[in-house]
Every structure is written in C-alpha cells, then in structure tokens.
Amino acid sequence: MKDNEIKKRLSVEAIKYIKPNSVVGIGSGSTISYFIKELAKIKHYINNSVSSSYKSSYQLNQLDIPVVDINLVKTIDIYVDSADEIDNNMFMIKGGGAALTNEKIISSVSKKFICIVNSNKLVKKLGYFPVPVEIIPFSYPLIMNEIKKHVGGVPILRNNVITDHNNLILDIYGLDLSNVKLTENKLNNIPGIVTVGLFTQRVADIILVGNYDGSITRFS
Predict the structure, then answer these.
(1) Do 215 and 202 meet the contact criterion of CB atoms below 8 Å apart?
(2) Cα-based angle 45, 39, 104 (whole degrees, multiple of 5)
(3) Closest CA relative to residue 13, chosen from 202, 204, 214
(4) Residues 82 and 11 grouped into a single domain
(5) Which domain holds residue 157?
(6) Structurally, how many domains does the chain consist of?
(7) What is the mean pLDDT of the chain?
(8) Cα(209)–Cα(219) distance, rounded to whole angstroms?
(9) Is the same domain home to 159 and 174?
(10) Is 103 a catalytic residue?
(11) Catalytic residue from among 103, 134, 146, 184
C-alpha cells in the first residue's frame, strides 16, 4: 500500500474517536491534510475545531469546517496530529512542518491526543530526524552558540521558513537523545528558544500506526 493510501486509511480510523459536539484540535502536515478531508464529512457532527497552523486553518475554512481561536473554547476534547518520529516510550519529534509551538500548546490542553503515523515513523531511538526548535530571530547567534556549547549537536537554520509566529526554525542534527527529557529541558532553558520539537511531557494517549499491508496497529 502506498503512503498516501495509508494516510487516508489512518484518517478514516481516527474519525471514529470523535464524539458528537466535540471541539477538535487539528495538527499540521500531509497526514493531517487527509484527516481534515475526512473531518469535512462529519463537520455538522462537531462543535468547533482549533487549528495549529495557518495552512490547516485555510484547508478547514475551504471545507466549511468551523474554526475558532483557542482562547474562545473552554476545552479541547480531542487532538489529532502526526509526528516525524515516535519511539517505544511514545516520545516524539515534531516540527517538520514548522508548527511545533501551536501543536505543543494544543496537545497540552486537550483531553485526548491521538497520533496517526505511517509505520516508517516508528523508531527504537529518536534522532534520525533532526530536532526542530522555534527561535526568536533576535537571539539567533546566541542560540547557535549555546546549543553547541551546552547541548551538542549541529544546529542548522531552516532556509526560507518563517513560522506563523514570525520566528525562525533551527534543525539540530546529531543530538544525544539517550535521555530525551534531559535534552528537552536543556534546550528549553536557552533564552530565545520558544519551543523544542521534542514531545516528552504530553505524549499521545493513542497511537494509530498504518502498516504497508493495509492494517492499522493501535498503541496506548
């Protein structure tokens, strides 16, 4: 089965977890684009959606799915997103689509977090994919030096990318992720880093994994 077919099948499966009158958190990326298309089929079944990116918001609006600001909802019942990598502890690397800040905010306040991924996103150890960090442009030189001195790895500016918050993205290659939580904390302590693309504090409640034989595996 091709990747796009797997993403569509995962999206159909994820829709089954949405209850009537829910407020649905929406992630970002190609997998979530398929999920949004499936969500459009039940748009009158949900209350509202909260989006993590301008790109997802645009697609939601195009399909007449109600979108509201996160500050206008009392709770988010379910959040559906994907990941760039996910390990056996359900720790994740996210941020390939540069929407990591809003994704981390929405996931942290959602009652249930469902992550949908192709099986090639499952890894024994995180780090094949670089760790993105969103940074304030003013502090770019400082952050580059601080990462090299105190955390390690090779930070590289992602070219031609400005986040929805008008910030920059650094992709850190070769990080020591033997202790993922410690590395996330070290990065969080560097002034000017807005968000770290390591998700260890709020992990998914349910992971739906699409396999190339067409089956879906559920972890929780």
Answers:
(1) no
(2) 110
(3) 214
(4) yes
(5) 131-198
(6) 2
(7) 96
(8) 8
(9) yes
(10) yes
(11) 103
Average pLDDT over residues 1-28: 95
Strands 85-86, 92-93: pairing kind: antiparallel
Residue with tokens 């159909």: 12
Q: Report the predicted TM-score, pTM, of the whole model to 2 decimal places.
A: 0.94
pLDDT in tens, 95-149: 999 999 999 999 999 999 999 999 999 999 999 999 999 999 998 999 999 999 9
As given in the structure block, the two tokens for residue 175 are: 């990080």
pLDDT of amino acid 114: 98
The CATH number of residue 64's host domain is 3.40.50.1360
As given in the structure block, the two tokens for residue 38 are 């499936």
How far is it, in rounded angstroms, from Cα 133 to Cα 27? 17
Residue 212 is encoded by which pair of tokens?
């190339």
- CA dihedral of residues 97, 198, 121, 26 (deg, nearest 10): -50
Cβ neighbours for 145, distance < 8 A, ≥ 6 positions apart:
none
